Structures are given as C-alpha cells and as structure tokens.
Amino acid sequence: MALTGSDSATLTVPGGRRHEEVLSRIKQDPDRPLHFTIDGHPEFTYIPYWQVLTEPFTCYPVIDLV
Predict the structure, then answer these.
(1) Would you say 23 and 63 are in contact if contact means Cβ atoms under 8 Å apart?
(2) Distance CA 29, CA 4 (A)
(3) Number of helical H runs and strand E runs in the chain
C-alpha cells in the first residue's frame, strides 16, 4: 500500500499508544475498492502501490503517537 498526499508524511495519532488504536483510524472507502482514508488526516489516502500515477506518495509514513 502507498500513502498518497505527501512524499514525507507524518501521521499524528493523539492518545495513540498501541497499534490497534492506529489501525482503528483507517477506514475503507466504500466507493473505491482497496482505498482507505485515515480519521484525522483527510489529506492522505492509502491506495494500492500499483495505482499510484503522478501524485506524491510514500510507503513508509512516520506514525507519531502523542
């Protein structure tokens, strides 16, 4: 999966202390198969790597648990 929206993304998860809390914020887009949004980060979308065309993306976003 690729995170589109930036080539150096940092996802801030307030109150996040476990990976389950991070994963609970990822929601499938009902209109687009294999596309996922992230609660609190409308600027980013997870999509299959092979669907990336020209938009900036990263496969390794920084996840900041604050």
Answers:
(1) no
(2) 14
(3) 1, 7
* Residue with token string 């995170």: 3
Q: What is the reported pTM?
A: 0.81
Separation of alpha carbons 50 and 23, rounded Å: 22
Going from the C-alpha of 8 to that of each of 1, 44, 56, 64, the distances in angstroms are 15, 11, 9, 13
Q: What is the per-residue pLDDT for 14?
A: 73
- pLDDT, position 16: 61
Q: Which of 12, 23, 1 is nearest to 62 (CA)?
A: 12
Of 18, 17, 35, the C-alpha closest to 26 is 35
pLDDT digits 0-9 by tens, 10-52? 887 777 666 677 788 899 999 999 999 988 888 989 999 999 9
Would you state the structure tokens that stand for residue 35, as one six-digit string? Answer: 């596309």
